[in-house]
Design a protein that fits this description.
The chain is α/β, with parallel strands linked by helices. It contains 13 helices and 15 strands. Bound molecules: pyridoxal-5'-phosphate. Pyridoxal-5'-phosphate binds next to helix 3 and helix 4.
């Protein structure tokens, strides 16, 4: 049954009410019912995924988009379409979700971790430069929290070393560098549409590119190695089934219509939080590069100076914010600390006898700082009314004053 009014509930937590996520109304309900009644629930003869692919490509400003099952699959298909294989190395940030690195292992290549910038927490171009070897084939960057990496420096570096660039844009739907949307700078851009993401179908992903050859390869790999306009049971490449469903395509089309307005609200509120939190000594919001002309803001990230607040360790401050009803999103642990890498299981995916133990023992000071000393507000916090943000800042100040000055 179709509900008779929009469903933008407010979630009330103590004194705070934050918009719920995901947001939807009759538009999503109507299009899902259309898919239901059409009887076409998969992509192959359907319309919704193809329409979403065209609309998303147009939104990002690229020639091609391919809808896939999730953001991990998007990375796996991209890495595979670039021909990355056992013996190759791919440089990735140490500070990211595991999929950025596990996608590299999925083709038997080795992810090489490098440290991030101390202020944006995005991969550091000089560290990439130092990590390039004769085996390096590609770099995967992550626009962390929605803030673009330094695309000028990284594109230069990739060109001069003949490396492929994949932009993992799972946090950065609509983020811009010098007025151009991220995703279209590299050979591939990949997106996640998982539940908490800025554009969501619960699960889902997309690959974008401007390169027709790469598009054809990725499209084939995501569809069991088929090629367009060929017999259904002919398979030309090694691929798998990474196809998005019509349900996902349909709901994403409606979510995409909401994204620009939501993005403007998040940006306005993030700027407000920046101004207010910068006044608190010991709290430093993620730095915004002037070339970042729009930050999608998958999260609002700030550094908490544990030395300055030595009587209130970060974990206790977080607990107090949560008790007050302010939602907090966990930061990532450094990749090199994950069991997958520490216990050596990753070796079962690579054929080279090259010893990569040094990666697990290397220092990644800025990633460690990001992992242990930053606090992340999830993106729906940035959709709240300004007076709610005002109250949040007030609670933060009160908590810090009470504990630190006690
Ligand atoms: C940076 C990053 N890369 C990749 C992924 C993987 O996306 P998914 O969860 O849709 O597979 C995520 C999602 O959590 C992510 O945050």
């Amino acid at each position: 049954m179709v509900a008779d009014k929009p469903v933008f509930q407010e979630k009330r937590c103590n004194n705070f009410s934050f918009p719920t996520w995901p947001q939807y109304d009759e538009a999503e309900e109507k299009i899902l019912m259309e898919v239901l009644h059409s009887g076409v629930w998969w992509k192959t003869p359907g319309e919704q995924v193809y329409a979403f692919e065209r609309e998303f490509a147009q939104f990002i400003g690229v020639d091609y988009a391919i809808g896939v099952t999730n953001g991990t699959a998007a990375l796996e298909v991209a890495v595979s379409a670039l021909g990355i294989r056992p013996g190759d190395e791919v440089i990735v940030p140490d500070f990211t979700f595991v999929a950025t690195a596990s996608a590299v292992l999925s083709v038997g290549a080795m992810p090489i971790f490098v440290d991030v910038n101390p202020d944006t927490y995005c991969i550091n171009a000089e560290e990439i430069q130092k990590a390039v070897t004769s085996r390096t084939k590609a770099v995967i960057v992550v626009h962390l929290g929605g803030h673009p990496v330094d695309l000028d420096a990284i594109l230069d570096l990739c060109r001069s070393h003949h490396l492929y660039l994949i932009e993992d844009c799972s946090h950065a739907h609509g983020s811009e560098w010098r007025g151009k949307k991220v995703g279209g700078f590299g050979d591939f851009g990949t997106f996640s549409f998982q539940q908490g993401k800025l554009l969501t179908a619960g699960e889902g992903g997309a690959i974008v590119t401007n390169n027709a050859d790469l598009e054809l390869k990725a499209r084939s790999i995501h569809d069991c190695g088929r090629l367009p306009d060929q017999w259904f049971y002919s398979h030309f490449n090694y691929g798998s089934n990474y196809r998005m469903t019509e349900w996902q395509g349909a709901i994403l089309r409606k979510q995409l219509e909401r994204l620009p307005d939501q993005g403007r609200i998040r940006n306005r509120n993030a700027a407000y939080l920046d101004r207010e939190l910068e006044k608190i000594k010991g709290i430093t919001p993620q730095w915004s590069d002037p070339n970042c002309t729009h930050n999608g803001h998958y999260a609002y990230i700030f550094h908490y100076d544990s030395e300055k607040f030595s009587s209130l360790p970060l974990t206790q401050f977080v607990m107090k914010l949560e008790e007050a009803g302010i939602p907090i999103q966990a930061s990532y642990p450094p990749l090199h600390e994950l069991d997958l890498f520490q216990n050596g299981i990753y070796r079962s995916r690579i054929t080279t006898d090259q010893d990569y133990q040094f990666l697990m023992e290397k220092d990644y000071p800025h990633t460690v700082k990001g992992a242990r000393e930053t606090i992340w507000f999830p993106q729906n916090v940035l959709l709240a009314e300004e007076y709610i943000l005002d109250q949040m800042v007030h609670v933060m100040r009160e908590t810090l004053n009470k504990e630190v000055c006690a």
